[in-house]
Amino acid sequence: MKTVSNNLVAPRFLTAAIALAALAVSTCASQPPVEMITPAQWLQRQPKPIFKPGHTLPRLTRYGWSLRLDTNVELTENWHYALQLPTYLSDEDRVLDVRIKDPNDEVFKIVALTNSNPAKYPLATILSRSEPPNPAPETFLRDAEGKLLSGNTYSPLNPQITLDQMAELRARPLRELRKKVPINIILNGGEYGLGVPGFMRQHAEKDPAVAAAQAKSGLDWISFISRAKGREMDTIAAAVRKAVPDRRLYIYYATGPADRNRYGGWRDWGMDPEDALKGSDLPATEYYYKHFNSGYLPDAGGNDILTRTLNAVGFQIKHGKKYSYDWLSGGWADEADPNAPPPVAAPAPAPVPDKPVANAGETRVLSNNNAAALVDPNAGGVSPNSLYTGFLKCIFTAGTLAGNAGYYQMPGGGFDGTFPADRPKNYLPQMTALSHVQALFSHLESDVRYSDLLPGPGMHRWTTDQPAFEFPTGTSGVRVLARKHKTQNKWLITAWAADGLDRPVKVTIPDLGQIKLLARAAGSVYTATLANKSPQLTLNDPDAMLPTVKGFAPKKVTTAQTLASFKAPVAPQMQDLLAWFDAAKSVEKDEKNAVLSWKPQGSLADWEVASSTEGKLPAYANRRPPMWVADAGNGLPAVRFGGNGASLMSRKLKPEAGLKEAAMTIFAVYSSSVPQEDMSQNGNNNSLFRVPSGSGISNGPWPNPAKQTWQMQMAVQPFKDSPEYIVIGSGFWGAEHIASTFYFSGDIAELLVYRGDLPTAQKVQAELYLNAKYKLRD
User: Fold this and answer.
1) How confident is the model at residue 644 (pLDDT cuts 50, 70, 90)?
2) Quick one: which of 143, 139, 157 has its CA closest to 213?
3) Residue 331's beta-bridge partner residues?
4) What does the alpha-carbon distance between residue 506 and residue 512 come to, in Å, rounded to a whole number?
5) Backbone angles phi, psi at 763, to 5 degrees
6) Cα(281)–Cα(294) distance, rounded to whole angstroms?
């Protein structure tokens, strides 16, 4: 967790912001003034969520900054946030003896509002991170001579008297505050007392008393330190619960094991999960966009944010904890102060002759003043709000009941500063997104509380003895979670296009059967039932981003309606497109529709292929050119290959030498005329598209081998050498001619060849375009 202080210096302007500010100065005479508004004014102008009357979901909270009273009240009245004290609750900041008695102080006003109507203005407070001022000497690690190790580092043998002092530092202010006002939610941000095991072990091993106790315990070092941290948390939790027995929730920061089994050293950075769960009324896990995760799409280790979530959720379910209150953020980044005057650029210094210039790449720079980047190079990104909304719908489906909205970098001008009406500071849309999703689930509360999260057919990729808790769709960018009601044939299902590209997907849910859902970037939350053994679907959030603004209005949908509501991309992206062979365009044929040549679109239009290329193709007696067929698939044409030596080869040699040791992404739409079981490594029907380095795309695997239906296939292949020519419809060849019988037999309607391994979003867009054009998926 990163805590933001209001005393932080506002970050400097980004280069782009400087340029824009300078442009604004030069054009201000002709442009109307920009309306600058406060956070409260922005919130008041937004569409408000409508929560179900009588629901029992906890209030939302926030962490990392203080807000003006008007913003705090607006969030409480209209967005289901708790009314939050603007400071840590401790003796040091004089909350109890001064601020609460001053009619002009925000603390006084907040307490008065809560006392006027505790249900409307439920109070939340954050506990202090204070340490006991005069702890017992044995509180800290010491070497054999009694000297302190690594400063005042707490010992796993921390005596109970110190733990009691730590607990009292938090409990006494709570007791005093509770005498004056009801307290709804208590947040404990942690990060004090005993440190993380991986850091502590190197010092604890040098303390003779600690080393002896660890050896006697029979526990490994991580478990030994974890048990000690558990004692600390339990002591504080007991004191807090006793001080405020009528609280709604006491939430301790990050008790969930999101990194469990992800890598060998995962236990170094947190408590053993069994020890951590007891220190909070509900499990609480940290899910921050691109903070120790790859975001919404997996990296090489699969470390995306939802995979982490389901790793923690599985453990919690195993220990009887079905629901959670999580620490959430859509990411944070440097934000310029919109009220700052344009900076005056200093004149560039004159160059010094004959003096070496330092290589900037050799110096590590703290990115955007973001402290998190020191330990996490991914930190600093801000999620698109639609995708953050989709992620939130997934975790609420998984069992999150409420959460804490965090933002851990000071925006320019501070959290309370004004900004242009159409460009709010990043933390505000994140807070409203969380509210909109919780409002949706307030109407689905019974479907969550009286159901179980379904395990899915596979196991979690890290914790392999635990279910994955999601259902495959055949598309890695789409995630589907489902719950089953305990006593009814009723399911709650969420489909999220985590790559940001909406599309219909098929998924099979046990006892319900196969269904088709519209996966959206902002998520789609369905209720499913059975009628005459047939699945019936209701879309609970027709407006994905504002699901309750016009009231909760679920819409019954059919597969046909799902498909009709989906608009496929009009065409694939042209960026990095080398060659696009479309049988409906640029096919030269004779009067009998024999194909003479096929010319592609794209940056390499000279990759034209032909059935005769000056003797470079084999002259088999039975060889016939491929044929053009007007109505091959979905009423669209294709080039038909007979498997008889027919193929198309590029006329121009060495179409692009610059592809050496690069890569290509190939998409093919085709249908084979040879049953899959008849294919073999030595048989025909082999290659659709090939370059001489052995890179290309081959036939199969088929989705339905018996029917030999049309299909789309994608492959990413490296170039080992610069291609001298390309071939469509054949496999291997000699130096200057095809010398193989590995000929394709079937129809090819479309081939797209891109330079490089495309980003996931561009791959999906091409797939969506081809699937929709040829109706490859019903």
Assistant:
1) low
2) 157
3) 382
4) 13
5) -60, -45
6) 29
Q: How far apart are CA 128 and CA 236, in angstroms?
A: 12
- Six-digit token pair at 626? 């491929």
- How many whole angstroms from its chain centre is CA 603? 34
- 213 φ, ψ to 5°? -65, -40
Tokens of 699: 């036939």
- Pairing type for strands 663-672 and 745-755 reads antiparallel
- Average pLDDT on 405-412 reads 93
Q: What is the dihedral of CA 18, 23, 29, 31, to 10 degrees?
A: -100
Whether 604 contacts 651, CB under 8 Å: no
Tell me how far apart the alpha carbons of residues 684 and 733 are, in angstroms, rounded to a whole number: 14
Q: Which two tokens stand for residue 602?
A: 């794209």
3-class DSSP state of 498: coil
Under 8 Å between Cβ of 468 and 459: yes
Separation CA 224–CA 272 (nearest Å): 10
Q: How far is CA 530 from CA 480, 535, 649, in A?
A: 19, 5, 55
pLDDT tens-digit profile of 97-131?
A: 778 888 999 999 999 999 999 999 999 999 988 88
End-to-end CA distance of the chain: 46
Give 677's DSSP letter: G
Cα separations in angstroms, 202 against 195, 260, 275: 12, 22, 21
Q: Backbone phi, then psi, for 533, in 5-degree steps?
A: 65, 10
Phi, psi (deg, nearest 5) at residue 263: -150, 170
- CA–CA separation, 278 and 514 (whole Å): 40
Work out the average pLDDT over 156-161: 94
pLDDT band at 465 (very low <50, low <70, confident <90, very high): very high
User: What one-letter code names the amino acid at 265?
Assistant: G
Mean per-residue pLDDT of the chain: 82
Let me know: does 668 contact 697? Beta carbons within 8 Å.
Answer: yes
The per-residue DSSP string of 84-132 comes to EEEEEESTTTTTTTTGGG-TTSHHHHHHHHHHH-TTTS-EEEEE-----
From 124-128, 417-421, 510-514, 760-764, the region with the lowest mean pLDDT: 760-764
Q: How high is the pLDDT of residue 301?
A: 82
Q: Using one digit for the tens of pLDDT, what is the confidence trace for 478-528?
A: 999 999 999 999 999 999 999 888 888 999 999 999 999 999 999 999 999
* pLDDT score at 741: 52
Where is average pLDDT lowest: 558-562, 688-692, 740-744? 740-744
- C-beta of residue 483 within 8 angstroms of C-beta of residue 448: yes
Q: What share of the chain is helix, strand, coil (3-state, %, to 5)?
A: 25, 25, 50
Q: Are 249 and 185 in contact (CB under 8 A)?
A: yes
Give strand pairing partners of 484. 452, 491
In what helix (H) or strand (E) does residue 163 lie, and over which residues does it extend? helix 160-178
Q: What is the pLDDT of residue 101?
A: 87
Q: What's the pLDDT at 731? A: 58
What's the pTM value of the predicted model, to 2 decimals?
0.80
Q: Which residues pair with 538 in a beta bridge?
A: 527, 556
* Helix/strand/coil for 51: coil
Nearest to 339 by CA among 10, 746, 580: 10
Nearest to 153 by CA among 143, 145, 164: 143
What does DSSP assign to residue 279?
G
DSSP per residue, 734-765: -SSS-----B-EEEEEEEEEEES---HHHHHH
DSSP three-state, residue 531:
strand
Separation CA 417–CA 39 (nearest Å): 8
Closest-CA residue to 750 (of 514, 585, 617, 620): 585
**89, 126 Cβ separation under 8 angstroms:** yes
- What is the percent of the chain where pLDDT is above 90? 52
Q: Tens of pLDDT along 518-575?
A: 999 999 999 999 999 999 999 999 999 999 999 999 999 988 887 777 777 778 888 8
